[in-house]
Amino acid sequence: MELPVREFSETLPSVKPKKPLELYEFEACPFCRKVREVISMLDLDVMIYPCPRDGDRFRPQVVEMGGKAQFPYLVDPNTDFKSYESDKIIKYLVQTYGDGIIPLPLSLGPLTTASASIPSLLRNGRGRQAEKSLAPQPELPLRLWSFESSPYCRIVRERLCELQIPYQLFTVARGSRKREELKEIAGKVQVPYLVDPNTGKSMFESSSILDYLNDTYGKGYSPKVEDKVEEVSPRAVEFNVVPEDPEPVKVDAEVLEDSEDI
């Protein structure tokens, strides 16, 4: 069965949340991807708290709030909604911030889950396991302009997940009103675009961002980083989807560990 490509913001939110949503997840989880897809479609912004396997920064918070280490886990501070279960979260989001109709590609049950697993299978599970011996957690969350179906954005999110770096995700899928805001902030519409308010750095290009993250928050050091980054603009500091034609696949049990049961 062919699934239509739905990477764009087709249903813009009728009510924009005053406070960013909070999503506890890890990049390699297909159930988490389903939630990120609907967030991208609805053009919502969200605080991401990465919870990779063996992560010790935000997994304990999920257990404290919900009673178990299961992902995704969404918190909406605007309504006090808190929940596990991707389908329940998707239904809540489209009813609260959309037109109430769940997009077809996200309503096909096991087929949706299988298609959401494909990127992680192709990436050999990157964004699943926490890196050991991390640098101290940054004082302020990073800011990432991205949309779900971009492969260049994905590899940046994978690394942020492995490093357990919290970040505010600004979704700018096709049709997003925030594309013009991004152009005003950064000078052009290109993703991924990362801003680190802790160091005053901002940059495009996934390779530059990965070098920067490894140099600043990981184990590696790249002398090329300084040549690739730009000073962050004041506006950037103040400014506060579905795979193509997927075939049904067998879901990797390793990828689903600590995720929802299927």
Automatic annotation (TrEMBL):
The name on file for this protein is GST N-terminal domain-containing protein
State the superkingdom.
Eukaryota
Coiled-coil positions are none
This protein's GO CC annotations: chloroplast
Source organism of this protein record: Guillardia theta (strain CCMP2712)
Leader peptide range in chain numbering: none
User: Residue ranges of the GST N-terminal domain?
Assistant: 19-101, 140-221
